[in-house]
């Protein structure tokens, strides 16, 4: 199964796949509006704005699995992201990223790009996965990796594909 075949649900409730992103470089991020790393939303939006016309997309997947730092409902998440952080990049429904109920997308991402010491588990909010235009997971970035630090990796992928 390709990453593009995985079923996802938008923050507004529409079910689909990642097929619309085929041929794009994607940065897939597990987010949380109540997290200390939430200011990264602004940096992620800046990357999305800067590179979207070149075939790049940030995809945000809210998760409440880490200290329950996400709002209860998708509509609350969307509202906070838009009002507090100016987010206009695609957001998806609240998602489990670890454990037996982990979403198939995150099972795929963590299998393809392991963390420190080869671990699969996501350690915290704002773990980021960079995916090339062919759907290959090329790099995993931790929570503390600021979006600006990832920019050169994005630009390289866009230039070379």
TrEMBL record:
Pfam families, per the entry: GSHPx (PF00255)
One of the protein's GO biological processes: cellular response to oxidative stress
GO molecular function: peroxidase activity
Glycosyltransferase among keywords: no
Active site positions: 35
Xref: InterPro entries: Glutathione_peroxidase, GPX_AS, GPX_CS, Thioredoxin-like_sf
Keywords: Oxidoreductase, Peroxidase
PANTHER family, per database record: GLUTATHIONE PEROXIDASE
Family: Belongs to the glutathione peroxidase family.
Name of the molecule in the record: Glutathione peroxidase
């Amino acid at each position: 199964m390709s990453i593009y075949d995985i079923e996802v649900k938008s923050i507004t409730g529409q079910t689909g796949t990642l097929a619309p992103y085929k041929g794009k470089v994607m940065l897939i991020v597990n987010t949380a509006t109540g997290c200390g790393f939430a200011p990264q939303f602004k940096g992620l939006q800046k990357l999305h704005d800067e590179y979207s016309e070149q075939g790049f997309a940030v995809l945000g997947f809210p998760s409440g699995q880490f200290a329950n730092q996400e709002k209860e409902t998708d509509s609350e998440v969307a509202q906070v992201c838009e009002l507090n952080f100016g987010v206009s990049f695609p957001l998806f429904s609240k998602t489990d990223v670890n454990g037996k109920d982990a979403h198939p997308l995150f099972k795929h991402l963590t299998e393809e790009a392991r963390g420190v010491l080869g671990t699969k588990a996501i350690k915290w909010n704002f773990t980021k996965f960079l995916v090339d235009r062919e759907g290959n997971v090329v790099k995993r970035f931790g929570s503390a990796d600021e979006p600006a630090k990832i920019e050169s990796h994005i630009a390289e992928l866009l230039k070379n594909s």
